[in-house]
Amino acid sequence: MPRRIGILTSGGDCPGLNAVIRGAVLKGTEVYGQEFVGFRDGWRGMIEADFMSLDRTSVRGLAKEGGTILGTSRIGPYRTPEGQPDRILATLARNGIDGVIAIGGDGTMRAAHLLHADGIPIVGVPKTIDNDLDGTDYSFGFDTAVSVATEAIDRLRTTGNANHRCMILEVMGRHAGWIALHAGTAGGAHAILIPEHPESLEQICAWVTSVHERGRSPMIVVAEGFTLPGMTEAHSDRGLDGFGRPRLGGIAEVLAPMIAERTGIETRATVLGHIQRGGVPTSFDRVLATRLGIDVIELVARRQWGRMVALRGTDIVSVALAELQETKSVPPERYHEVRVLFG
């Protein structure tokens, strides 16, 4: 039975991370008598043996707290001599740590898979507000992001209606448009633009004009990774992120003047940004994150390393890290299901 377990949160922050930590620590300490430490700032803490003790007292009341008490970073293993598997194994052994629980998105799960293949006892918990991680129906943080975006749509519609303007809300979604799809559907958007399904400017303007001619104020929701036909890559003018990828954002501000010029309708853009990541998790995310934290302890107790807990329907199951694909995209049928309502 693994007795001392390390927990880390890696990648972007996300509502529900603390609930996972709480669920895991409470289950492990109360049922299996395990001891827990939390690595500070993701993989960095594991690589450098920078950790804090986690017990029942330290996780008290965490289910409702946003962010992560452990901190996070974009630092990953394999990038430095200290981050090589043999050094990590030695560091874990020196500190009496029998296994690692990695909470993160697709990048974290890929790193966890590589580490497992190199002999590190590790399991995963899926985290991403984008809901684009393969292997799980939903990831915690997504429901909170959708709720925040939906409220923003509701607020923008009131000011749009008052001023007879077309309003565009930009939400997160580099490769997958799940937040835009769900929030746009919930908010009754007149057009939803996502990376998986490009729409022409002519079509977008036709929807906007149709709405305006009915005496309504058009509401458009666009994911940051959306591209118009002819664009070779998503809009980015903000440099690179911690992984060397273009930092996306601003497609709404590109679309707004185009729509205004072609339709003659005053158009305003709002980029929601990191507001989607912050704040307290919804009740759905608190429950899902807690369940994932509880069930990942069973993987640890059974030494089922190299696996990730996941939500399938209403059940928590586990999948092999090796089976995870790059991105869970919005399928065509889901998009076209709501596209008939546009305009």
From TrEMBL:
Identify which top EC class this enzyme belongs to. transferase
Q: In which pathway does it act?
A: Carbohydrate degradation; glycolysis; D-glyceraldehyde 3-phosphate and glycerone phosphate from D-glucose: step 3/4
In Pfam terms, one family for this protein is PFK
Q: Per the database record, which ranges form the Phosphofructokinase domain?
A: 4-299
Residues at which substrate binds: T128, I129, D130, R165, M172, G173, R174, E224, R268, H274, I275, Q276, R277
Record's subunit section:
Homodimer or homotetramer.
Tell me what this protein is called. ATP-dependent 6-phosphofructokinase
**Which species?**
Pseudoclavibacter caeni
Which classification does the entry list for the species?
Answer: Bacteria, Bacillati, Actinomycetota, Actinomycetes, Micrococcales
